[in-house]
From TrEMBL:
InterPro entries: CLIP_Serine_Protease, Peptidase_S1_PA, Peptidase_S1_PA_chymotrypsin, Trypsin_dom. Keywords: Disulfide bond. Residues 1-219 form the Peptidase S1 domain. This is Granzyme M-like. It holds the Pfam family Trypsin. PANTHER family: GH08193P-RELATED, PTHR24260. One of its GO terms (molecular function) is serine-type endopeptidase activity. It comes from the Eukaryota. It comes from Drosophila lebanonensis. Gene3D superfamilies: Trypsin-like serine proteases.
């Protein structure tokens, strides 16, 4: 898992989570890409290689050279997905730079267990470390989000430990994984902050719906990189 960061007054500031899906690509929730970041990618960096967000001993910082956000994002809160092309490539260190599988046809059935991985915040809102929270899938009819919910593109899950408020102490774009296969299931897309303490389910982007889209965007950005390398060959 990675931390998306932008410049702060004293140090870089974390604002979203992301998942490494290959040595060059990170999958994130589209709502993480705000307009200032979108207009100037130099404001955005990726921190990976540690489970302590501000542990400078083990962290490595990567730059974002390109990104693709789903073109239909913003319409009724669906299609909340984007992909970042980073440089340099992530090191081949499976312990610190774990690539998570996003290619799964497994259905998210009610009662199925899952784990939310995110950068947990302390009581004053500062993210500190990666936390794992138990979740359980619920029936789509029980989500309670009415017209803005898409059964095909989203699913709902409810935390089962009851220890912390996901809306208050989780960061945006936290990733939900299959507790058994460790496959990426979804990103936190939205929750109802007004009723967060009342155990209302959280809505997640359904990653399995976007398998072809993810593949197409990676190929597109790699093609752009290849053309640029031919246009400006190293050493010429």
């Amino acid at each position: 898992m990675v931390s998306l960061q932008t410049p702060g007054k004293k140090q870089e500031k974390h604002f979203c989570s992301g998942a490494i899906i290959s040595e060059q690509f990170v999958l994130v929730a589209a709502h993480c890409l705000t307009k200032p970041v979108e207009k100037n990618l130099r404001l955005l960096s990726i921190v990976a290689g540690t489970n302590q967000i501000y542990n400078n001993t083990y962290t490595q910082r990567f730059q974002v050279k390109n990104f693709k956000r789903h073109k239909r994002f913003g319409q009724q809160c669906s299609d909340d997905i984007a992909i970042l092309h980073v440089e340099p490539k992530f090191p081949k260190d499976k312990a610190r730079f774990t690539t998570i599988n996003y290619k799964s046809n497994r259905r998210t059935l009610a009662g199925m267990g899952a784990l939310l991985l995110d950068w947990e915040q302390d009581t004053i809102g500062v993210p500190t470390h990666i936390a794992a929270t138990s979740f359980q899938m619920v029936e789509n009819n029980d989500c309670g989000y009415d017209n803005k919910f898409s059964n095909a593109k989203q699913f709902c899950a409810l935390r089962t430990d009851g220890l912390r408020s996901i809306c208050k102490y989780s960061d945006s774009g936290g990733i939900l994984i299959d507790a058994d296969s460790k496959t990426l299931l979804g990103f936190i897309s939205y929750c109802d902050k007004n009723t967060c303490e009342m155990e209302k389910p959280t809505a997640f982007t359904r990653i399995s719906f976007y398998g072809n889209w993810i593949k197409d965007q990676m190929e597109s950005m790699l093609n752009v990189q290849s053309k640029n390398n031919k246009k400006f060959p190293i050493g010429k």
